[in-house]
Amino acid sequence: MLDDNKKIGIGLCGIGLSCLLLGVFLFFDRTLLAIGNVAFLLGPSLLLGPSKAFRFFFRREKWKGSAAYFLGIALIIFGWPFVGFCVEMYGMWKLFAAFLPKVLQSLKLVPGASTVLNMWPLSVICSYIYDQRRLPV
Fold first, then answer.
1. Which of 16, 45, 49, 101 could form a disulfide bond with 40, CB atoms 3.0-4.6 angstroms apart?
2. What is the pLDDT of residues 64-108, one digit of tens each?
3. Residue 126 has pLDDT above 90, yes or no
4. At a CB cut-off of 8 Å and minimum separation 6, what does 84 contact?
5. What is the distance between the alpha carbons of residues 84 and 69, in angstroms, rounded to a whole number?
6. Environment class of residue 121 by beta-carbon count within 10 Å: exposed (0-12), middle (13-18) or buried (19+)?
7. Alpha helices in the chain (DSSP H)
């Protein structure tokens, strides 16, 4: 059973992602991108707890992703929304790339999602994500 902080954290992550998506669809609107970033930053801190969220973002092995993510947020706030969004997406990729294979496996259990994920443009991306988790031999 989820407590209230976790429910609010999940909601803030959803609001953050939808504001980011809407900000991109509206030609990189600075306000929506900034609101999405704030909501997306508050979401994990309520979901995981402030100390675990801080430890996640500031781990030694994740410094590149965290630096790019926070630099992207700063660029968006200071008036460079397209460049900031690109830098931020690189940071999100570096931060969350380890979770993506598990997310894709969970999505394939949703009826209809496996058909969509096996279509041409998405199948190439999915195979690239699956190849990233292989260990070198």
1. 16
2. 999 999 999 999 999 999 999 999 999 998 988 888 888 888 888
3. no
4. 33, 71, 72, 73, 74, 75, 76, 77, 78
5. 9
6. exposed
7. 4-25, 30-48, 50-57, 63-77, 81-96, 100-107, 113-117, 120-132
